[in-house]
Amino acid sequence: MAAMLGWTLLAGFALVTTAVAQSTSSFAINPPSAAAPPDDGQWAMPAKNYASTRYSELAEITEDNVKNLQVAFTFSTGVNKGQEAAPLVVGNTMYIVTPFPNILYALDLTKPGAPMKWKFEPNPEPAAQGVACCDVVNRGAVFFDGRIYFNTLDGHTIAVDAATGKPVWNTHIGNINIGETITMAPLVVKGKVLVGNSGGEMGVRGWIKALDAGDGHVVWTAYNTGPDAEVLIGPDFKPHYDMDKGKDLGVTSWPPDAWKIGGGNVWGWISYDPDLNLIFHGTGNPGPWNPDLRPGDNKWTAGIFARDPDTGAAKWFYQWTPHDLHDYDGINEQVLLDMTWQGKLRKVLVRPERNGYVYLLDRTTGEVLSAVPFGPVNSSKGVDLKTGRLIVNPDKKTGTGKVVRDICPTASGLKDWQPSAFSPKTGLLYIPHNNMCMDEEGVEVNYIAGTPYVGMNVRMIPGPGGNRGAFTAWDVAAAKPAWSLKENFPVWSGAVATAGNVVFYGTMEGWFKAVSARTGALLWQFKTSSGIIGQPITYRGPDGHQYVAVLSGVGGWAGAIVSGDLDPRDATAALGFVNVMKDLKDVTTPGGTLYVFRLP
Amino acid sequence: MNRGLPCLLSAMLVLAACQREERDTRPQSVLGSGDQPAAVTALEPGGQRPASSDNKAGVFEANAFHLSEGKRLFNWFNCSGCHANGGGGMGPALMDQKWLYGSSIESIHATIRDGRPNGMPSFRDKIPDDQIWELAAFVRALSGNAPKSAAPSRDDDMMPHPSENRLPDAATLGKSP
């Protein structure tokens, strides 16, 4: 079976639909230019730009010549845990941050082999490793104004001088003794470093903070549960739907005091629209997972906020998954685009969401324009566009003492954190994602600060078709897939799209792949030393040529069986993920290596 | 070399301090109460010290009631949140033959009571000592290190793996006897 699958993958790719998105080229879909300035060949933030397109205008590497790609240099990060970070390239230097212990490296791209320029070791508290829900990952650093900003697992945000590697400031904002960690990549907007916490599996109350980029002091803090005053909901807050209107919903949509340990963490992606002066960020799952313990809509978890970056004041909110039943965190990336929708020019954001739908939202108001599933979904039956509410399938409702089988998608979602890329040349959004289902049983759970607060037994299984992952090109204008490639394992890496009409992503077996942006045809692949779950990037090197870089090193929630050496005999290990990844140990081993490619 | 000068100087210093620091030249040889010694390493220069055993170990290790209580407490104190049902997650697997800090019930008891540096919390102030022994006995059952007649024989929840009394001894797993 495994051999056959391997053969199919080698032989080419599986097309779900063959319609190529040529029709969309008549519609111009572009990111707002203020959020996606002309490409300078650098890669200064994980999402490439504030619009989060992960699209590069570099076109030296093309559909025709990509087959000649070869390794330019490699670098060992020295850490064999899940490498989820995006490398950064600014000027002649590449910066990479490792999983715990969060070492920051600078590599000199002007010299052969890109030798190390400096390294900075923040020495985070080792105990933090025990309270990180899903491997000890870090999703990347960010460059701004001569400094690199990044977070450590034990809850510090650190600014380092990009030229010398000397720390400039270090602010402690997370407390591991209540289960708080930081895994997300910060975003710098108008001189403020935006950071959120992780800990949705530990009963941690979610927040996002803005730290002054100059000296690191906290400028504002917005919680995602609790009274309006602490959520920074004031007179400017105008949600589109009635379900999000009312006073102190962050308190009243919970049982008494449950909001204090209710999750809604900010461990994913933030986008920024300079024209509207709004940041957009998602909120994580409510805690505990067992929904019987928290009747109500559980505001403001599993949704998205638009906030004023200067003050943190909320402008609107939309809840993807009210009263979440299945750990559908709402933290995925939002790609900001301007497009014609039903005859009108709209400022939208596109969001391939964990609960299985690609959402198109008006980003000025939070109105849902469309929500269409991009894979198998049976936990809900669609989104009511009048009320904005997800239509829950009562057959898949979980609760204490009840085993519910074959819920699709899994707790890790049809798509987890792994960010997609958008090409304005094709009008397609390239979505790396999962295809899995699960059995769930709610159980009693005690809240003990600093320990897990989940209350759910989970056991995952492959989704329809047996392929546990897919790489889907989504036609944004038509709101339907253009093509989709099957992958044996969940596609837990990010994607990058280029003007050369080549799209890159990695697989958990360790293949780094280049496919045609138009058809999905496999053009080139290279087997790296470990499974890939990182975010590929592309940049123009000091020699003027285009390079492609990715970190290889399996792990994350999906790869925890390998990076944490978990025992496949326990179906519930790693919150149920191990059951569906039993064979990963047979195909890859832990690693941590940077690979950089170029044409000969 | 003049030895007199430093001596004189130090004597002056001691006098100036008025009081002489107290020195315990014979430190207590026994540990404080509640701190049973549990070996952290097998490396002992010059040869291994005989394994010290706690007399509670025997009471808890082969007792069906204590083992089933240990199984209940493993969920109650959220051990299962980090270690799942033995396969691991945020914490390492406990049903395999790999032990970071020792497989003896005394070592496991010490792990739970005092915590371990890379993220195992200390439950010293949360769990009464006898319940820590029950947990330690159950942890050993996860890797097949409890008498079959005493280990828990059923799961009340969604089945993660065969019940503990049917789990193989992890040390011989996959090896012919």
Q: What CATH architecture of chain A would you give?
A: 8 Propeller
Q: What is the count of distinct domains of chain A?
A: 1
| Radius of gyration of chain A, in angstroms, nearest whole number | 22 Å
**Structural shape of chain B:** globular
CA(first)-CA(last) distance of chain A: 37 Å
Give the total of beta strands of chain A. Answer: 38
| Mean pLDDT score of chain A | 95
Please provide a written account of the structure:
The complex is a heterodimer of chains A (600) and B (177). Chain A has 600 residues and is mainly beta. Chain A has one domain (2-220, 274-284, 331-598): Methanol Dehydrogenase, Chain A. Chain A is built from 5 helices and 38 strands. A 5-stranded mixed sheet of chain A has the order 1-32-33-34-35, with no helix packed on it. In chain A, a hairpin with a 3-residue loop joins strand 32 and strand 33 (502-506). Mean pLDDT of chain A is 95; it is low at 1-26. Chain B is mainly α. Chain B has a domain at 53-156: Cytochrome c-like domain (Cytochrome Bc1 Complex, Chain D, domain 2, Orthogonal Bundle), CATH 1.10.760. Chain B is built from 6 helices and no strands. In chain B, helix 2 (55-61) crosses helix 6 and helix 5 (105-114) crosses helix 6 (129-142). The longest helix of chain B is centred in the first third of the chain and has 14 residues, at 4-17. Chain B is globular, with a radius of gyration of 24 Å. At the A-B interface, loops of A face loops of B.
What's the SSE blueprint?
The complex is a heterodimer of chains A (about 600) and B (about 180).
Chain A: H1 2-11, E1 55-56, E2 70-76, E3 88-90, E4 93-97, E5 104-108, E6 116-120, E7 142-144, E8 147-151, E9 156-161, E10 167-172, E11 187-189, E12 192-196, E13 207-212, E14 218-223, H2 228-231, H3 249-252, E15 270-273, E16 278-282, E17 303-307, E18 314-319, E19 335-341, E20 344-352, E21 357-362, E22 368-373, E23 380-383, E24 390-392, E25 403-407, E26 421-423, E27 428-434, E28 436-442, E29 456-462, E30 469-475, E31 480-487, E32 496-498, E33 502-506, E34 511-516, E35 522-527, E36 537-540, E37 546-552, H4 556-563, H5 584-587, E38 593-598
Parallel strand pairs in A: 1-32
Antiparallel strand pairs in A: 2-38, 3-4, 4-5, 5-6, 7-8, 8-9, 9-10, 11-12, 12-13, 13-14, 15-16, 16-17, 17-18, 19-20, 20-21, 21-22, 23-24, 25-28, 26-27, 27-30, 28-29, 30-31, 32-33, 33-34, 34-35, 36-37, 37-38
Chain B: H1 4-17, H2 55-61, H3 64-76, H4 79-83, H5 105-114, H6 129-142
Helix pairs in contact in B: 2-6, 3-6, 5-6
